[in-house]
Every structure is written in structure tokens, then in C-alpha cells.
Amino acid sequence: MQGPLVGKHRTLFIVRGLYLDIASWATDDAYWAEWAAPSFLTREDTAGANKNKRRTQARIHQRIRDLSPLLPKLLMSTAQELKEAQSLLAAGTAAEQGQEFEYRGVTYHRREMSRSRINDPRGSSRVWITGGSFERRIDLTQREENCFWSWALINTLSETGVRIEELVEITTHAFSIYRLPESSEALPLLQIVPSKTDRERILLISPELAHVFAQVKKRVSTADGRVPLAVRYDSAERTYGLPLPHLFQLRSGSERRTMSSEWVPSGSGNP
After folding, report:
1. Widest distance between CA atoms in the chain
2. Do residues 104 and 92 make contact, with C-beta atoms less than 8 angstroms apart?
3. CA spacing 20 to 30 A to 193: which of 41, 89, 145, 232?
């Protein structure tokens, strides 16, 4: 939650920025000249902005310190959920449609799919079941998919510390190998494109992160091992980027799209 002073200063800066933008536009386009005017905001109106910014940063740092002890539990939980989802999906896949199957002492029923669903682009390979703790019919294939992306996203964010908008822009072109001159030891590196700080960063890939990226690449690759090209939509600029081999991509009908910054924290949760 943001305090009233934080919202106040943000609004004032937006208003002042609008006045400055109009004045800048007027120097290139006479249309804006009649709208250009000096800003009515004074230095006193925005006094205390830096102090409130430091307070906000202090609250964020304190929240990080409070939540840091929970990170290992979160990583372990997502790994366990993924393993459980994959095991249950394997048991459901082995059963015929319309048949019951048992998994860890619990009886489930694999539901039959309608002809329209079988002919759907997502295919008849999807597994729907009822039984156990599932009160309603559930798509095990989608559940395993959600668990996988939760695991991959949380581990990537934990290992790199990148922002979500930087994560969804990672492509296969971002990986490189650097060899130490003395020992010729190969160091895998990850290039992070400029985001908030407008500065390019190079991160060393740990063995744990390399395992995550390998699993992600395996998940999105085609039968010949290539990562397909996907288009990224910029919701802020409302533009589509060039097709690139993005790692964090999803299938949307017959197309492939990168995950959006909004989807990552909300769409990867378990159903």
C-alpha cells in the first residue's frame, strides 16, 4: 500500500511532466504552441519527495528481510508440487479414457473427451480427471504446465534477481561462454537487456540456473530441438516486437507469444 504522500508526489510529478512535454513538443510542432504554459507547480509543492522515496525504499528493504527466510521453503514447495503434478499426470496418461486408475492409494477417473476437444489444436493428449481432492473435473495437463512454469519462474527470479519485464525478454541469444585466459575454464554467462537502469548486465549462470534453463528450453523446443520464434507484446507501448527465440513463451492457438509481465505473477499459479 502506498501512503498518501507518495501518491501526492507522483501525481504532482506527472502534472509537471505534462507541462514540460507540451513545451518540448511546441518547439517542434506549432500546433502545441497555444497549449504551452509555465508550470504552476513550485519547489515547495514537491518538497519532501526525496524523503518519502527513501522511506519507501526502507519499507521495501524491510519487507525483503522479512520474506527472505521464506524463500527456501517456497523453492522447495514449488519443486515438490511440480514433482507431484508430473507423477499424477504420468499415472493419468497411462490410463485409458473412461477408466479408473489408482495413484498413491487414491482412486481417480480419467474422463472421456468429447469429439470437439479431441479435434482441438491442443489435442486429445490432454488428461482430464475427477476424484481424490478434485471436486470438479480438472485438466491434469494444464495443471502440470502451471506447476512447471511456477517452478521455472521462481527459481530464475531467485537465482538472477532480475525484474519480471527483464525475465520475459530472455532469449537464446542472451547466452554466451567466456573462457578464463589463465585456465581456459568456460564460464556460462547471461546477458540482461537494459530495463529500469538502462544498463546492460552480464550475470554468471550457476549450475542450478543452468538446470532450470535446460528444462525450460526442453519444454518449449520443437521436435528438432529448436526454440521457436515468439512475438513479444509491449503493453506499455502497445507494439509487437520482432519474432525471437524467447525462452519464456506460451502457445496461443496456432501462435507463440512470450509471457507478459502481468501473466508471470498471476497466470502461472496452480488451478
Report:
1. 77
2. no
3. 145
Strand partners, 107: 102
Q: How far apart are CA 208 and CA 164, in angstroms?
A: 19
Q: Is the pTM of this model over 0.90?
A: no
* Residue range 225-235, pLDDT digits in tens: 899 998 888 77
Q: Which residue has the cell 507547480?
A: 41
What is the rounded CA–CA span in Å between residue 97 and residue 92? Answer: 9
* Orientation of helix 71-94 relative to helix 140-160, angle to 10°: 150
In this structure, are residues 94 and 103 in contact, taking their beta carbons and an 8 Å threshold?
no
Q: What is the pLDDT of residues 48-93, one digit of tens each?
A: 778 888 888 888 889 888 888 888 999 999 999 999 999 999 999 9
Q: What are the DSSP calls for 90-134, one per residue?
A: HHHHHSPTT-EEEETTEEEEEPPPPHHHHTSTT-TT--EEEETTE
Q: Three-state DSSP class for 179?
A: strand
Q: How remote is the C-alpha of 122 from its chain's centroid?
A: 22
> What is 44-82 written as a DSSP string?
GGGTTHHHHHHHHHHHHHHHHHHHGGGHHHHHHHHHHHH
Q: Using CA atoms, how far apart are residues 239 and 205, in angstroms rounded to an integer?
A: 31
CA dihedral 9, 235, 154, 221 (to 10 degrees): -160
